[in-house]
Each structure stands twice: as structure tokens, then as C-alpha cells.
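Handover notes (outgoing to incoming on-call)

Open items:
1. WD repeat-containing protein 11: sequence verified, structure written out, both below. Nothing else pending on this one.
2. Nothing else urgent.
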Amino acid sequence: MLKLYPKTLTGPLHAQNKGACDWGWQGLLAFGCYNYVNVIDPKTLQVIQTLEKHKANVVKVKWGKENYHHDLNSPYTLRLATADNNGVIIIWDVGQGHAKLEFSENNKPVQDIKWLTNQDASRDLLVALHPPYSLILWNADTGTRLWKKSYTENLVSFSFDPFNPRNVVFLGQECIVFIDDFTITKTPSSNGKKYYISSPSSHGGSTPVSGTNSLDRKLSTSSSSKNLAKRMSRILIGESKPSKSVQADEESIPLNECLQLSYHRSCRHHLILLYARELLILDLEINQTVGIIAMDRTSSPFQQVVPCWQRDAILCLHENGGISMRVRRKTNVMLTPAMEGSGAFDDSPPNVSLDVSYELRCQSDPLRITRHNKVYGIMVNPVSESSVALVMSDSRVIFWDLKGNSVKIPTSSSLNLFPSSPLHTPGSKLPVNTIGAASDINFPVLSNVEYPKSSLADMIGPSQLPGANTNSPRSSRGHSIQLKFLMTGLLNGVTSHVTCLRMCPPLTNKNYSNYRPLVALGSFNGMLQIVNVSSGQVDREYSLHSSTVRGIEWTGLKTFLSHAHANPGQSGLVKNEIYLLDILSGKSTSVRNHTEDESPIISLQVSNLKQYFVIAFKDKPLELWDLKSLTIIRELPKNFPRPTATIWSPSHSTKTIKKKLLDACDDEKPMKSPIDAMSSSGQLNKTDSNTSIKEKKTSSKGTVREHFVMTDKDGTVFHFIVEGSSISDVTKIPPENGLGTITCLAWKNDYLMFGDVDGILCCWDLKGKISRTVPTNRGWIKKIKFAPGRENFKFFTLHNDGAVIWDFNKEGKVEIQYFIKSPKEIAKISDAEWAGSDRPMLVTTNGALHVTDITLRNSSSPTDNWDLPEPLFCPHLVSSKSSQLLKCILQHQPWEETYNLMAPNMREDDIETEKTINKQLNLIDSSLTSYLPRTQFGTAERCLLIARIFGDESDLHFWTVALHYLRSEKYQPMSKAPSRVTSQSDMGDLFIPSTPSYKEATDLVVLDNPDQQERSYLVNELYRDQPLERCYDILIDSDSFKKYQLDRVALHDNKRATNDHTHKCVENYILLGQTDRAVQLLLETEADNTTYYVDSLRACLVASIRSSGASQSTIKLVATNLIANGKLSEGVQLLCLIDKSLDACRYLQTYGDWDKSVWLAKATLDHNERSELMKRYADHLCGTQINLKSKALLVLLSLGQFYKVVEMLYGMRCFDRAVCFIEACKEFDLMDNTKENASLFEAVYLEYARFLTNLGHRKAAEYYCHKAGDKGQQLLKEVEILFT
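WD repeat-containing protein 11 C-alpha cells:
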């Protein structure tokens, strides 16, 4: 049964919709279009929902985050927050298409909204910025305001620090405001620190490097490297605006030129500032620019940037519609401190560039940007970061995918010719030729099935890795790669300025099998669109006419006539165009092609039996055409009145008409009324009638006579009978009293309706021979149309100020049923139609096409009711039971002999669930389904892949870190990592490689068997993994962490501009054990500086401390005294000097500086000491104040504390994740069943068996009952009873 549900299809966007778009973790994207929100599935390129409740234009759209553990109580949902220009924020249930909640702050507009992540307390918290400077924390589940903070500066937008939930940065109109006390429990107390930005004046000479509160902004491409170094060293600091004396040298630059401000998502302490011609990267630890991406004059300016998290890369959108991808250049690592004389005060540039620089890796082709067609937003898939969508102002959405092509690495001699360093893939596969040698290895699983690359992290390796390891050709498995953008999809909305719409002929018993509910739209620019009303998708588009389309008439289910002409000039003449279009073949046939300029066509009407059509002109006689042969039959004489409206008699009358005409011939009584005249349709004398009937008998059998009616400007009605190739009869009926000029006609069965310029509606009942007039009191009636369907006499009238639906009551009088006012309740209506017997369809001037229910009020329905041509894989749209069971089947199947992608046999109540799961399984990409049964690293890798396709942020991070540390624990167990021997500076910069596990001699017998060695080497190489990306911050392995921190200190050293800055560098060098460089910096202090004496003494202390061991106790005593008296950082430095970093970390923790203690522990302590500290940190994260258990889990994973992880997962009721993790650990042979852990494992299995029972998966539930000890046996009995 074809049932049409209410829905809205949107057209072009409003300027205020710019930037109102978002791509969610759920895999769908949403964007604002006027006051509607469109939701699109990017995989199948379909609009799957349009949300309608906002009264003003939508200005912000944000998908709810998925960073929580999903189960039956916390299901996968499609939750969306949108804000409009009136300040109303709506939280939507996208699947159902209705608003769950609506709230606002005294109707103040909204500048920006963001869901609050980075905390486990609640996933319903939404932060909104209202102009001029109010920040509000809302509970988006209840609509309550938790707190409101008003700042002192006008704020434009804000960004949360992804590494520290307390930090927020605001972009103001004049300055940047930082706050570091954001919590959900209480209103931030401080007004934040303000920073101003200034630029060296163009006329001033060389600006001295002074401690002004400024950061330069302008960068001319011709400036020398010295100048560049100076510009880069500008500082962003201070509470006050730059002083007058400084301003003589520097112009203060207002921030309103700044297009965007955002925290970097893969590097801690970095902030991105975007201007039209350059992008600045600021390091917030030193408040300085550490990188600039400048656009040259010929390139297109920036419009927006999206920082990536999986890799240190930035996606940039340019004004010409092009997208570029920039990847962080690997710096020549500075493990050795800078030499004497190459400090910050020396003008010679350093030999190594330490600046944060990004290389352009690929660029898409620019688009054709015109005044009417601009890019209104860029969205990036947050799961893969390799798919980009652009929303255009003309309603198009363009999809680009990032692809990687293998290239040969240039040899070292030619490397200098390549300005950019080669990019490398992560390399997760062994070379094919080694698979044979390792054929007897059971785990990792070796197969020839290709790993399904879907994300940015699969394409390019981590940022901090040196490209290829030239010493060991076998160890570097990544190969060189080039990136490029491919356009993979284009989605069109409704065309702009729709002038007319026409529904195809209605559904009947005869056309039921091949019927498609299509509506044709004509537009101002001559474009024709075919839209499928049941699926809500634009089906086809034709650029046929060169001027405005004025009308469309279907001549069959697949063909229609359309006519167009431009607006007439002073002469009143135009060039009329008429085409017959076949939508299956796309073939168009021109009708009346040899015409000169003439009077414009006012209507074209096709007869009900599709034999003829009439063309009415504004100032020219009516023409009658044969539709089959497309030839003219007759043009009425010139002296005949000009028509104002025409209508063909409905086809039901073909049978009765013969009878009526025969009756009329016998009937010689004079006519009493115009309606009598109509019903007998003849005012001819008897002989004429007889001749016409004889003609009819002899005329060709192929044609049936048809009738049409026209009215002239006086309201006179003319009734024509058309038969064969002539008009055989004309009847003239005098005008109805009280009617003005007739503007439109409608005819169904025995009812003929007239509408006039004054809004009077007249109904002729041809059967009852009665005429009634009804005033509509709404002015000019533009259109009357009966609804389709037998015995359905509903009709609408279209007016300038809205639409009215009428019906006949029992007495046969017409009554108003429903109405809608425009533009009060809906934008101005430009045309209306019936999509079905109770589905009016309105098209408005803002380009939206509404299919409404009969009340004209509701035009949205659940996604299930959109009859989509292509089914979509979306676990968020199915029931929570189905999505959980689907995830469980995909992640692991130890209860089956072999892994297969089929739903289990379920109870009768759950047959629908079973069908749903099988449908979803069939929609998964084949490259993934072929790899899933043979994942190289078993359950852990499978869970990671499933987290990606489910868009489960929490799962994705857990399994990324888990898989990395499971592999590294096998490659080189942490417990066997070398402990700190002597301090770092004693070792100098020698790198002592640790012994890999396969070479360790566990006893005195050394295996010299080369095959054995080769096999061990192979297995070990398989486990070797590349470091985690920097976005995981303190979770990455300590070697990579320390290397990165040394790089940062070297960069800070290179950028020194003030004394405080130098002291900060000294402190970090001392903490990291780089004492020689610390001494150098301390000795650089100028003699007239107040700290000169103290710095000299510190230099002596640092230099001499190594030689005398006896002084250690004194120094420790001094350090503890300093700490006790509030000099924490000085005390900690002293402790680090005497190799007491562990004590230093403990003091930092005691005094609440957790971040610093973790940083110090990661960079300086050995595994055992670090473990103890990090465990304390994990406990701190689990505390009720912090409530970041999800992060604590990852910290424990990074320590290799796998048993503790299982314990914690059990405590957090993440039973499915706990079971998968236990299985993964067993596959890696890193966890055994022992007496100590048996009770925990059994408890986990028991709860998981309960969970599976609730899902209705009997076989899996029984499998885990058997593993869950005695309690499992009890549950097993319950399961058997439940499923019988």
C-alpha cells in the first residue's frame, strides 16, 4: 500500500544559515536551511529527515556526542541541538522527527552552542553563548539553566580545550579571553585573562623586541627571515591594552578580522587563530606564535579550518570552495641542546627550523563560486576524518573523500629537491613474501584479506615518527604515500524560486503496479525538477527552458507539457516556449516552435482523456491542439472573447455524456437556467443536434468527444464540445450574478467551481441544477483544486494570504475545514497541489516543499515513514535491543564454530528484531565483512573496527589504546623495560636500545637455530606498533612523550623573548635533566637585571651538583623547606637536580598540581616508579570531584594494568566491553585463568549472560552461563525456562 507521509523538502539556504552545519559521530550530517534542519545520510546520499519547528532562521546545529558506554539503558540515539536567530534552542529526536525540548534565554539570540564532553557526570549538558557576553550551562534533558556567567568583553565564539575540561577560550571583538575555572558544579568565578593583539606598523622602522602585550598579525611574504623571526616572537600577554608609547610603533589590530579561533585537537597547549590570509598557531605555554601558514597573494583566502585529532593535520576551506589538507612537518628532532651563541638574542637564524610548520599535502579543485552560490559550511566526518562535505548556498551538498596513492620514496640524494618530507602509511601488514615463512603462526592471524582502510589514521602514520627507518629496512612497514581529494557525491535540494508545481496523475487500480508519486516543479530560471513525494528525494532535473516556467501539465505517468515565457516588456509580447518531456528517456519535443513574439500564454490545459489540450493567451484567441500528433486543430476566431480561465470536463462524464446529449436532443423545452444549459449542454435547434449525433456515429472510432469550459472577463461561460478534429458545438451561458472576473475553475463529477478576483467562490451543482456563492473574505482566488479519489470532494483555494481547505457538508454546501495563513504561520505560498487524497502540498517562496497532513499544520514524520529508495546502515535508527545485539554479533562469536554474519534464531516476539539485524548486516561494506572473520589481532581489532562503523566515540578510544598496549606488551613487556641507571645527562644522548623479548635468554641455553630465530623475529615484528598519536597526550609511551617534550623545550628556547620566558625554559631543562643548556641560559642574564645574582648562583649550583654526592641531603632539606613555604616549582627543580624526580612528583600531587606531576613522571621516571604515580592519578580521576572514570581506564591501559581494567569495567557495569577485553587479553596470551582472577571473571561472565538473555540471544547466553561457575548454572536454568 502506497501511503504518503507528511514531510518537508527544502531549497536554497539563507545567509544566516552560514556555518549552521555539523557531521555527527552517528554518521549523519545536519544543516540549517531557513527555519528547517535537514538530516542527510552521506553513504547513500539521501535526505532522511527534515525537522520543522523553529520560527526563525537556524544559526547553529550540533549533534549530541557519543562518548559514553552504550547499553540497553543508554542506547544509541540521534540527538541534535539546534539554535535559531530568536534564541530558541531545540533538542530533537531525529529518528522520530519531533522536538523533545525547547528552551531559550529571554529570547536573546545565540552566538554559539556546544555539547559538553570531557566529563562523565552527564551527557545532557549544553553550553550556549548569548550576545553580548553571557555563557549559560543548560541541562538539555530538562531544559533547566544550571548557571549563567556574564563576562565583561563582547564575545563572538568559544572553544573548549580537548585536553583539560577546565580551560575555555573566547574570541572577543577586541581581545581573546582565557578562563581556567570552568566546572559544571558552579559558575566560573573569574572574568578570565584578556590578551590583546597588535601588529607592527607598516611605516615604523625595526620594532625593538619588548615585552608589549601584543602578538603580531600581519605577515608580508617578502619579509626577511630575521623579520619573520621577530614577528614570530611577538607575545600575547597582559590585562591591559598596549600602551601609548608602544602604539607609536605598532598599530593595534582589532580582532574582528579574525575569522575563527579553536584549540588544536591533536596537540596540547596549542591554539589556532584564523585570518583571511594567514593561520597562526599559538603555544599557550609561552603565549607566542610558533607557526604561521601564510597564503600568497595569488591563492584563495581562508574561510574556515577544521583541526583533526587522529593525526596532526588541518583541513582548510578556502573562499573559492577548494579544500586543502595540511599535515605537520616532522621537525629535525633537537635532542641535543643548542650550542653556545645560538640563543634567542643572536640574530643568526638557527640551523634547524623548530617552528611548527604544516605542509600542503593535497588540494581539491575550486568550485564555481558566484554571487548566488557560495560555500556556507564545511563538515568533516569525525570518525574517519577522511570525508568532507561542503554545504552550498543553493542547497547542494558536495562530498569529497581523501584517498591515498602509493608513491616511490625519492633517494636520499634527490631528497633535497623535494621541499616536503614524504608521508608514510601506518603499515599494519607484513610484506607478502614473509607470510609463507610464518604460516604456522596462529596469532596474530595472517591472511591475504586486505585491511579495510577507512580513516585518516589508516592512511598516514603518526606525526612524531621519523619517516622511514633507513637502518632497518624490514622494520619500517609503512610506504610513501600521496594524498588527493576525490569528489564522491552531490546532493541537490529543491531548486530556487519555484513558480509552479504539478502532481502526476493519481493512483488507480490500473497503474498500481508501476505508479510512482512524482511531482514536477518549474522554476524562475527555467529549471524543471521531478521530486519523489514518498521518498522525499529529488529524482531528476532538466534545464529545458530559457525563461520562467509558467505551468506544467502531465500527459501521462511519465510525460508532461511545460510552458514558459519571460516577463513581458512594454510591448506586452513574449516568446512562448512549450515542450513535451518524457522523463524516462529525457527526450524533449518542442511544440509550436515557429512562432514570433506574441501575447503570453496564461494557461495550458490537457483534456482528461489525454486527447487534446487548449492554450489560452492573454490577448490572442484560444488554440485547440491534438496531443497525439502535436498539431493544431483550431484557432478560435479573432472576434471571440479572450479567456480568463479554462477547464476540461472530468473523464467520468464520457459514459453519461452520450446519454445526456441524446436526452437533450429529444428535449425541446426552453432552458430555465445556466445550469440547465450546462447539464444538457446544448442550445441548438433540433436539426443541428441530430446532425451532430450522426457525425458522431460516422466519425473515427479512435476519438471520444470531450467538453471544456472557458470564461471571459465579463463572467460569461462558454461550453465547447470537441470531437475528432473539430469543435462541434459551442454553448454560451450568461454570467452569474455577483461574480467578478473569474480567475480559476475546477470541475469534479457534477460540481463545477468558480473563483473570482474578489474572493467569491461559486459552486454549480450540475446534477441538482443549483448554484451557490460563498464569500471567502480572503481576496483574489489564485487556484482551486479538487483532491483526488472517488467520492472525495475536498478542495483547496489558494489566496495571497494563505490556503483554505473546503469540503461539502450533508446539505451540499461548502464549508471551511482547515486553513493556514501566510506569511504568519508559513512562508509566502507560491503554489499548491494535492499529493494524495488527504495530503495537500504547498511550495513556499523560501524554496521549501511541504507535504502536509489535511490540517495543513504538520509536515514532518518519523524517518521510518520516509520511503527511502536505498536502505541505510544506521544502528542509531533501530531499537536499542537491535543495535546492542548487532554490536554483540559483530564484535565476537566464541559461542559459534566459525564467525558468521547472521542474526541468531530468536523467539517469536523478537522476529522483527531478527529481520532488522539481518537487514543491517547485509548493508555493511563488503571490504569490512570479508576482513572481520580474519582480523589480524582478533577481538580487540574487531571491536575497534565496529566502534568506527557504529560511531561509538567511547569504544573507539578505549579499543585504540587497548590494542596499542596489548601489542606493545607482547613486543616488549613493560615490566622488563630498563630502569633508570644514571641520570640522563650522565648518559649524554646515547640511545641504548632495549633487548626485544625474542632475544632475551631465559636460561643459559641459547637457541642458535636460524629458523627459530627468524620465526621469533617475524612474530615480534607483527606485534610492533607505531606510537599513539599526540592527541592521546599522557597515554602515549614514555619514550615518545619525552622526545616530544624535549622538542617543545627546544622550540621554547628558540623563541625566548623575555626574562620570565628564559626562566621557564631553564625550569623545564632542569626537570628533563638537560642541565648543560640550563646553565648556559642562566649565565645569559644581563648584569643590570634584578635576578642577575640569583641566576649566577643557580648556574653554579646546577653545574656543580653532579660532582659532589655529599650535598644531596642538604639540597633535599632545602627543597622540602622551599615547598613547605609555597615555593613549589623551585623545590621541585632542586629535587630533579639530585635525581629525586619521584619525590618531586609526589609533592606536586600533594599540592594538587596533577597535570605537572604526570608530565614529569612520563618524561623522567622509569616504569615502576611511573606506574605507582599514574595509579594514584587514575584514583584521582575516579574521585567524585573529577569523575573521569573513562580517562582513568585509559591510564590503566597505558600502564599495562589489564586486570585492574577488567575490575574497573565491571564496577562501571560495562560488561560487554569487559568480556571482549578479557577475550582479547587471552588471545594475546597476556591473561590466564587463575584462582585470583576466577571470581572476577565469573562475575563478569554472569552479568554478560544476563545482558544477552535480555537481548534474546539464547545460544550466547548459555555459552557464558557455562563459564560463570555455580551462579551461571542457576541462570542457565532460568534461561532454559525463559526460551521454551
